[in-house]
Task: inverse folding
């Protein structure tokens, strides 16, 4: 490992603990809320409130970092996240939990901006591709590993909340004790979602649809799994199957989209997500349900990166790629606010099978609209396209890192 990469290890360690705790808390809130007797619609509101806070932070975090620096913003937000986790178990009330989850969304949106802008400024240009790959690996392993803490500690007591708060508290150590250099603060991203719609309706609809569906999967999925009779360990396996599936086809679909009109790749992946949802509706055996979750993640999760690639192709070499990334996050967040609410209401009214009927309906509509757009608008010439980049849906700063990691 080179000196530059070695210097970034503390940031990656902090990211690992935050990602593990955040992924764990999302599943934990759904399971514990069910155990406490919260209605499915209430659980959907808790999911929506997280993304309300997430979206709000996109507008203010860059200004916060410019005012007091990366380390202080990180410390403040991680402290709030740890305290909020303990409030969840001290005050079991839907209104309190909604406020806490909104605060969590705000904190994690800001924390990701801090980490990713820091990585972006600190990584040597020749190493940004490797830094991005390491960051993706940290994301996958941390979120996956965090889910397996659920069966170890259970969801009924105080312990699992304490473990989550400990993860957030420990994330402060590598940041507080790392090099005291002050990277250049990130610029405030421009949020012009209407411009992205004029540039690429397909990209907007893909970001919106993945917000509508994957947020429902991540936040209502644990409720679905519990309703069909899964215990805590099986719920963790079910959720991890979807997360791992999201990695499985990311690069193959990206490589295919580099060779074809990306909209056809989006269309094919969306049809795959429809089929996976219908399969989950019909599946009964646990193994079949795990396979269905894996397939759902494999086809649905890459849609965001494909949407970003399509939007950037339309923008051309002089496009404002960070502004595009910010707009994509906006549309994703809008979908992610509505998705858990809609899915939870359907689950409450029609039972757990309604979750994947809902995702299949959304993806089916997306596939139909994509076909219409393919017919109405010519493809971007192959020589005018940039390479596919697999992205995390975290902050616009990740796109700065991704573009520079690919020589842009």
Result:
């Amino acid at each position: 490992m080179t000196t530059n990469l070695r210097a970034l290890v503390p940031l990656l360690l902090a990211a690992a603990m935050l990602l593990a705790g955040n992924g764990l808390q999302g599943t934990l809130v759904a399971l514990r809320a069910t155990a406490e007797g919260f209605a499915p619609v209430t659980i959907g509101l808790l999911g929506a409130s997280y993304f309300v806070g997430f979206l709000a932070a996109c507008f203010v975090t860059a200004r916060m970092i410019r005012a007091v620096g990366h380390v202080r913003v990180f410390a403040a937000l991680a402290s709030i996240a740890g305290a909020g986790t303990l409030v969840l178990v001290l005050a079991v009330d839907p209104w309190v939990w909604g406020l806490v989850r909104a605060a969590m969304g705000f904190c994690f949106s800001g924390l990701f901006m801090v980490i990713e802008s820091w990585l972006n400024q600190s990584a040597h240009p020749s190493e940004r591709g490797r830094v991005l790959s390491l960051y993706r690996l940290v994301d996958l392993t941390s979120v996956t590993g965090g889910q397996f803490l659920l069966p170890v500690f259970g969801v009924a007591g105080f312990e699992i909340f304490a473990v989550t708060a400990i993860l957030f508290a420990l994330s402060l150590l590598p940041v507080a004790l790392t090099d005291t250099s002050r990277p250049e603060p990130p610029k405030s991203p421009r949020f012009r979602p209407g411009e992205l719609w004029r540039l690429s309706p397909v990209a907007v609809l893909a970001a919106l649809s993945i917000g509508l569906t994957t947020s429902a999967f991540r936040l209502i999925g644990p409720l679905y799994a519990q309703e069909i009779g899964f215990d805590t360990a099986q719920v963790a396996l079910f959720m991890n199957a979807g997360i791992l599936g999201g990695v499985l086809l990311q690069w193959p679909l990206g490589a295919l989209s580099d060779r074809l009109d990306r909209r056809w790749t989006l269309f094919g992946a969306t049809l795959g997500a429809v089929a996976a949802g219908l399969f989950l509706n019909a599946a009964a055996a646990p193994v079949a349900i795990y396979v269905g979750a894996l397939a759902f993640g494999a086809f649905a999760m890459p849609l965001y990166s494909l949407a970003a690639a399509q939007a950037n192709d339309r923008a051309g070499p002089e496009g404002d790629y960070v502004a595009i990334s910010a707009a994509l996050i906006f549309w994703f967040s809008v979908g992610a606010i509505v998705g858990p609410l809609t899915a939870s209401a359907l689950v409450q009214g029609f039972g757990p099978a309604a979750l994947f009927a809902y995702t299949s309906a959304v993806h089916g509509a997306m596939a139909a609209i994509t076909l219409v757009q393919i017919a109405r608008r010519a493809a971007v010439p192959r020589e005018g396209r940039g390479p596919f980049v697999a992205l995390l849906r975290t902050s616009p700063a990740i796109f700065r890192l991704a573009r520079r990691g690919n020589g842009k």
Q: What stands out?
A: DSSP finds 18 helices and no strands in the chain. The mean pLDDT is 85. Residues 52 and 102 are 6 Å apart (CA to CA).
